[in-house]
Specification:
Order of helices and strands: EEEEEEEEEEEEEEEEEEEEEEEEEEEE
Radius of gyration: 49 Å
Number of helices: 0
Helix content: under 10%
Strand order of the largest sheet: 7-6-9-10
Number of strands: 28
Strand content: over 45%
Structural class: mainly beta
Largest sheet: 4 strands, antiparallel
Length: 281
């Protein structure tokens, strides 16, 4: 309590008392926050202020004072808000925005497609990170997520997938399938046909490329394990080799011809005088 005495020029006085109340400022601040998800800036914070004389303003991370008590689109991290009431009293509060991470790794099993075939397979066997349950999307199959983990009838090339967890966090990943290398060359030995006797031969001596065991078809005939052909006339022959991955390679080989003698020159000496003196040379 404070006392004040007032006197005029004649000495007359008046005594009065004045009480000055001290305002204690902001009592407390409660922050309510939501966690950011998937590494995005989508966290929020809301302030509940007690003991303040409004209107009040807030400064987020030393920014300008604004007439608001909530903030959104916040990334994960530690932040501060300075609160100022109508008397200029301030109070600072700190808070942390957490992060719920999404999927970040995957495991798969694959079956590579055969040569020039769309028979590959990709099976998703595991997902790391994020929150289950997970749904999947194969980019070449539309825009709908599903629980399907097995993808068949795939071609050689790049295949793109996305996995989405229970919080809507999306993780893209890529899988590459490759055709196995097939046979690319045959080496053979041949002997030509002699004098139209159909005695030519053709033998496959080695296969380059692909994976054993190999099978062969000679001139469109049945499948055999090797090629060792005889009694051939002079002609061109097709040989197709197929490896264990069903990769095929086709080659054409020619069996030559040894013609033998085609003509001769003779001299005739006639006989004369009825004698046996003529000759052929």
């Amino acid at each position: 309590m404070h006392y004040i005495t007032v006197k005029d020029q004649f000495g007359c006085g008046y005594l009065d008392s004045i009480g000055i109340v001290n305002y204690g400022g902001i009592d407390s601040v409660i922050t309510t926050s939501t966690t950011a998800t998937c590494g995005n800036s989508n966290g929020t914070v809301n302030l509940t202020i007690y003991g303040a004389y409004g209107p009040f303003k807030t400064s987020f991370n030393s920014g300008p004072f604004l007439s608001q008590n909530s903030y959104s689109n916040l990334p994960a991290g530690t932040d501060s808000i300075l609160i100022k009431d109508s008397f200029g009293c301030t109070q600072k509060t700190n808070f942390t925005i957490g992060n719920i991470s999404g999927p970040n790794a995957f495991t798969i099993s694959t079956v590579q497609p055969g040569c020039n075939q769309n028979n590959g397979n990709i099976t998703i066997t595991g997902i790391s990170g994020g929150t289950s349950p997970y749904d999947y999307k194969y980019d070449s199959a539309g825009t709908v997520y599903s629980g399907n983990k097995i993808y068949n009838n795939l071609y050689s090339g790049i295949h793109k997938f996305k996995v989405q967890d229970a919080n809507g966090c999306v993780f893209p990943f890529t899988v590459i399938l490759s055709n196995p290398p097939g046979p690319n060359k045959l080496t053979v030995t041949t002997t030509p046909e002699d004098c139209e006797t159909n005695n030519g031969t053709l033998i496959v001596t080695s296969t380059i490329g692909g994976f054993a065991p190999y099978s062969f078809r000679f001139n469109g005939g049945p499948t055999v394990s090797s090629v060792n052909e005889s009694n051939l006339d002079s002609s061109s022959y097709h040989v197709t080799v197929t490896d264990k991955n069903n990769c095929s390679f086709d080659s054409v080989f020619h069996v030559g011809f040894n013609a033998g003698p085609q003509s001769m020159t003779i001299d005739i000496i006639p006989s004369h005088c009825g004698g046996d003196f003529g000759s052929i040379e």
